[in-house]
Inverse folding.
């Protein structure tokens, strides 16, 4: 177990004493149908901040991805998958304490993270990877990816696809490798072969294009 994980776990245990939140494990049906509680979500987010940053901005290089501003539907699905063991990551379940959270907790946490506007509180400068042909990446993206992820890579609720713009290139590279290896499912389809015919350069170009969408200059 890495020293960084142990430090995060220690911080989590120390933090838990100040986290004035009792997860709604016994939440009623009416709670589950209620509007998400952003104040509750903000308090629950203190655990997430140990790895993802105060504003869920992630870490440059993508060890921990940007979460701020991702669609609430996607965040809720991802958090539920981690809580229920569909996806595994010790930092998410141990440090984040997801195993104890109710559906209402997760909905409130997701709504809070989705509401964070990094342009206001913590502007990001996501670098474009060296060697990427952004124009080729744009052509491939609009041909093959736009239908699911949106013209501006803003995500698509109907297809449960995430926002990709503004995400760190290192994180995107790792997820694509997982899709190709079959250790993570793409597009909710275990037989999906989206990335099989892409060359390494094509993938670099697509990711390079995605890093430019949020550029303000």
């Amino acid at each position: 177990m890495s020293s960084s994980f142990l430090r995060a776990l220690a911080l989590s245990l120390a933090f838990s004493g100040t986290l004035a939140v009792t997860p709604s494990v016994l939440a009623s049906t009416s709670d589950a149908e209620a509007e998400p509680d952003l104040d509750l979500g903000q308090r629950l987010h203190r655990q997430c901040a140990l790895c993802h940053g105060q504003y869920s901005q992630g870490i440059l290089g993508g060890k921990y991805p940007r979460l701020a501003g991702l669609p609430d539907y996607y965040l809720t699905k991802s958090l539920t998958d981690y809580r229920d063991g569909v996806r595994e990551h010790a930092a998410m379940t141990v440090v984040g304490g997801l195993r104890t959270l109710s559906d209402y907790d997760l909905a409130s946490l997701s709504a809070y993270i989705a509401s964070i506007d990094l342009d206001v509180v913590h502007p990001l400068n996501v670098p474009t990877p060296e060697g990427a042909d952004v124009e080729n990446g744009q052509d491939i993206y609009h041909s093959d990816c736009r239908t699911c992820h949106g013209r501006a890579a803003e995500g698509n609720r109907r297809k449960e696809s995430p926002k990709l713009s503004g995400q760190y290139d290192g994180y995107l590279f790792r997820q694509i490798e997982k899709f190709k290896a079959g250790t993570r499912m793409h597009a909710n389809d275990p037989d999906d072969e989206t990335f099989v015919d892409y060359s390494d350069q094509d993938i670099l170009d697509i990711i390079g294009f995605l890093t430019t969408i949020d550029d303000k200059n």
Observations:
- The radius of gyration is 18 Å.
- The CA atoms of residues 85 and 99 lie 9 Å apart.
- Residues 134-149 form the longest helix (16 residues).
